[in-house]
């Protein structure tokens, strides 16, 4: 028995923490009761009994979520929330207001102050934990995006409180269209967002190709003790969350007060908010506007992250791919499975006498020449071929599936095209001639991880050697490596 008890204790101690939550409340009983519930759900819990202590602890410990009670000895809870939102290190921490009574006015005040959500006493444990898990999932996902994009350019929940205020798109989805239309009428009278109503279970956009809503409001009908209504609600939620058009949208589920237990399941399935029963119009507009602001903040962060990833792969001057993208592309080509073994060509192209152009016309003119040549190279290869700028005036061209004769014809054509085009530069009466030299080497796919690296190094050395021979032959010419890479 002692051994079993020991093993059980070890198992409990080894259970991973679900996140670090700070409880702020002057009433010790409130803190203790809440800590017991959260600790049982494997959260790491810290406590503060005043706003001043909470600010110090939040700045030092950076909790994953903060629960702020209504009773504080030194400041209003709204003041604490505002101070947390104003702090550089605490602005994006999710904040939940713990209210002593459940009234629309109290919820609106807390949300206006900057709280991400509100829970009321007595606490319905299952719904509370579902709300906290949902906020933590969003917080951790956003933090990952912030780390990838750089913290100085990321927008988070703190910024979303007021930094994004463009009108949004709201789509109401209801099995009973009369319910959706009635809510649409109410919302249109109180907010400046575009509000549409559609039947739940069908298309989630008004027409194919139409932009998806920033926020979907899923109206779930039901009565107490009706298992069919609950199953229908969960099925609708699952379908909406899986819809490709809604993958970046926020979802607010609305359930009748009699179906309150359904809220926890909806939150765990991915609803960003669940409204239980009817709420006043000010709370409706505030909750939906807050969801739109968060959606816009995350969209901007996603765009900046995408731009950052693109910038890491694209040469900013010419718009071609850069070495960072080209080398993994070449490696993947070499590692193609044996059943897809095929030849491919690698070319290294270099502008002839480029230093003379910079010295005579200036670096701005040199940049124009590089862009001009990049455009001609990109237009002169097949779809699926890769052209990258890998140095000052050096370009890499990769032709998957090309044989030696095709590679030679392509390289000759590129040389002729560039030599015949010329480029107009300031101060010159006619086009300035520009030429390139190209070295070509042939490779074959079907390598392993162990052999791909040396093979690619050899292949690039062969292409470089062929380029040097082309330069030695008088430039504006093509040379093929005599030794194909293994």
From TrEMBL:
Domain of life, source organism: Bacteria
InterPro entries reported for this sequence: CheY-like_superfamily, Diguanylate_Cyclase, GGDEF_dom, Nucleotide_cyclase, Rev_trsase/Diguanyl_cyclase, Sig_transdc_resp-reg_receiver
PROSITE patterns: GGDEF, RESPONSE_REGULATORY
An individual GO BP term: cell adhesion involved in single-species biofilm formation
PANTHER family linked: DIGUANYLATE CYCLASE DGCM-RELATED (PTHR45138:SF9), REGULATORY COMPONENTS OF SENSORY TRANSDUCTION SYSTEM (PTHR45138)
Pfam families linked to this entry: GGDEF (PF00990), Response_reg (PF00072)
A molecular-function term among this protein's GO annotations: diguanylate cyclase activity
NCBIfam families to which the protein is assigned, alphabetical: GGDEF
First-tier enzyme category under EC: transferase
GO cellular component terms, A-Z: plasma membrane
Residue ranges constituting the Response regulatory domain according to the UniProt record: 20-136
The name this protein goes by in its record: diguanylate cyclase
Assigned EC number: 2.7.7.65
């Amino acid at each position: 028995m002692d051994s079993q008890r020991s093993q059980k204790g070890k198992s409990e101690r080894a259970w991973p923490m679900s996140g670090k939550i700070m409880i702020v409340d002057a009433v010790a009983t409130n803190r203790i009761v809440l800590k017991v519930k959260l600790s049982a759900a494997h959260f790491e819990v810290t406590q503060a009994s005043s706003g001043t202590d909470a600010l110090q602890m939040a700045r030092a410990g950076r909790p994953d979520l903060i629960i702020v009670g209504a009773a504080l000895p030194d400041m209003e809870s709204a003041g604490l929330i505002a101070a947390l939102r104003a702090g550089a290190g605490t602005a994006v921490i999710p904040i939940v207001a713990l209210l002593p009574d459940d009234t629309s006015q109290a919820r609106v005040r807390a949300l206006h102050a900057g709280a991400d959500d509100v829970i009321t006493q007595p606490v319905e444990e299952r719904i509370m934990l579902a709300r906290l898990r949902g906020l933590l999932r969003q917080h951790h996902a956003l933090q990952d995006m912030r780390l990838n994009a750089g913290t100085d350019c990321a927008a988070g929940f703190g910024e979303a409180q007021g930094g994004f205020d463009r009108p949004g798109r709201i789509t109401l989805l209801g099995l009973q269209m009369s319910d959706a239309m009635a809510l649409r009428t109410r919302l249109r009278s109180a907010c400046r967002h575009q509000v549409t109503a559609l039947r739940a279970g069908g298309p989630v956009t008004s027409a194919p190709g139409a932009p998806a809503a920033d926020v979907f409001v899923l109206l779930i009908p039901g009565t107490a003790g009706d298992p069919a209504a609950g199953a229908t609600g969960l099925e609708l939620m699952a379908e909406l969350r899986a819809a490709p058009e809604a993958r970046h949208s926020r979802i607010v589920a609305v359930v009748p007060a009699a179906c309150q237990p359904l809220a926890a399941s909806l939150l765990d399935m991915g609803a960003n908010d669940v409204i239980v029963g009817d709420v006043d119009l000010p709370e409706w507009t505030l909750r939906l506007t807050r969801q739109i602001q968060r959606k816009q903040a995350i969209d901007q962060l996603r765009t900046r992250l995408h731009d950052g990833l693109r910038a890491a792969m694209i040469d900013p001057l010419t718009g071609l791919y850069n070495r960072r993208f080209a080398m993994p592309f070449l490696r993947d080509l070499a590692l193609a499975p044996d059943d897809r073994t095929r030849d491919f060509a690698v070319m290294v192209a270099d502008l002839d006498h480029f230093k003379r152009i910079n010295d005579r016309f200036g670096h701005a003119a040199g940049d124009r020449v590089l862009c001009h040549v990049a455009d001609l190279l990109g237009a002169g290869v097949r779809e699926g071929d890769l052209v990258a700028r890998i140095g000052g005036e050096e370009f890499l061209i990769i032709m998957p599936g090309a044989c030696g004769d095709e590679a030679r014809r392509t390289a000759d054509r590129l040389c002729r095209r560039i030599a015949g085009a010329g480029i107009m530069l300031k101060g010159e009466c006619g086009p300035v001639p520009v030429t390139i030299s190209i070295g070509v080497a042939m490779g074959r796919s079907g390598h392993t991880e162990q052999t791909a690296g040396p093979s690619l190094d050899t292949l690039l050395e062969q292409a470089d050697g062929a380029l040097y021979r082309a330069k030695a032959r008088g430039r504006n010419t093509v040379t093929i490596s005599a030794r194909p890479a293994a």
